[in-house]
Amino acid sequence: MKKICVASCMLFSLIILFIGSSMASDYTFVFGNGKVFVVDESRDDFAATIEWGGKGGWNGNLTPDLQKAYVFAGEEGQNKVGVFDAKNLKLLKEIPTGPMPFHGIVSPDGRLVGVNHAGLTPEGKLRVSFIDVKTDEVVKIIELPVEHKGAKGLVSYHNGWSLDGRFFFTGNNFDNKFYAIDTKDGFAVVKEAAFESLPHYFTPSNDNKELWIVLEGGKANAKPRIVVMSIPSLKVTHEINMSAELGEVIEAHHGTFTLDGAYYYLCTTWADPKREGTSIRIFDVKTKKEVKHLVAGGKGGAHALNTPDGRFIVITKHGDKVLTLINAKTHEKIKELNVGEGHAAYHAVSKDNTRLYVPDASGLYVVTLEPFAVVKKLDVPGGAGQAMNRYVIYPELPVVSGK
Q1: Is residue 403 part of a domain?
Q2: What is the residue range of 343's domain?
Q3: Which is it for the CA torsion 93, 97, 103, 106, positive or negative?
Q4: Is 23 helix (H, G, I), strand (E, B) or coil?
Q5: Less crowded by CB within 10 Å, the N or C end of the chain?
């Protein structure tokens, strides 16, 4: 009886958390270079511009209760995370965490912000910092060894969380390594795995039973593929290869689950520097089989973003200005649209599910979904990175139900 009660209480808590976070904020936040631009959706115009000291703050995340936003200053020479009041629209604090904080994520239970860093420490290590959401203080620093210190580029890209807020996932680009940190057991590194190519993205399944890891590939001896681990054991259960297309440039990038959890969309993007990938690979989550292969317009397919009502998936591109609109139920392309000047990052969907806010280096574009068309451009001095108005477990998947 006691076990049943505990399990029921945990499930109830998760449902309340997820339902609460399904709501959109009163505002859409657009993270820019040393600025946070705040859009009033009632008039599709700026309500405020908040300046802070963090340059390259392209990435950010909201707390599940939508009270605060955390923004990460990812440029070289930067070391700050900005904390913003998402209701009163002001800067609360700047927290030094380490060299080039890159793409932090708030845990689904609202306890912690897990922050990876794109630069090495002076000692040549990869730093992971954890911020307590209640106090906005750094409560844990983990420094992971790096073997190939002379490698070029960013040492870490992205992170992930298990849906219960227990495991934090991150990667070491220089050594092609994956790490899982148990934040409810002394912040122990409980899993370390080395791969033949860079582990780029980490997405938990909607039922929190699996972690899907995207390996970039893109090399003669390293094909792009997906590694599936079980949660909580973190044992590898499946390795998924994708079909090869003659002459196609393939390098796996980001993947996302559909809102019903039945399918997984994987974008193949660039093989640097051409960014010519055009494929969208769709996998059946249950069978782990590729069930559809779409070819998108434009180059450098990057992110497959769900609309919170579950009707559409929008594919953004890193190497082009084409957005691809897909029916999330039939997996068919509906329309493609040129937006901005290219390299659109993460868009946000309006509270009424009718419009997209699409940021890129040239501004912020308001795009209606029906019809699929650009209706307005807002100037964003210095360019725009990520747009967000909901809590997300990772940017492509808004949490909209208790599933």
Answers
A1: no
A2: 2-398
A3: negative
A4: coil
A5: N
Is residue 277 assigned to a domain? yes
The residue behind tokens 């559409």 is: 312
Q: Which two tokens stand for residue 388?
A: 């967000």
C-alpha gyration radius of the chain:
20
In a domain, 60, yes or no: yes
Distances (CA, A) of 395 to 23, 190, 315, 325: 15, 25, 13, 17
> Could you give the 3-state DSSP secondary structure of residue 6?
helix
Residue-wise pLDDT for 107-163, tens only, equals 999 999 999 999 999 999 999 999 999 999 999 999 999 999 989 999 999 999 999
pLDDT higher than 80, residue 9 = no
The pair phi, psi for residue 225, each rounded to 5°, is -160, 175
Count how many domains the chain has.
Answer: 1
pLDDT tens readout for residues 196-247: 999 999 999 999 999 999 999 877 678 889 999 999 999 999 999 876 664 5
232 preceded by a cis bond (ω within 30 of 0): yes
Are 215 and 198 in contact by the 8 Å Cβ rule? The answer is: yes
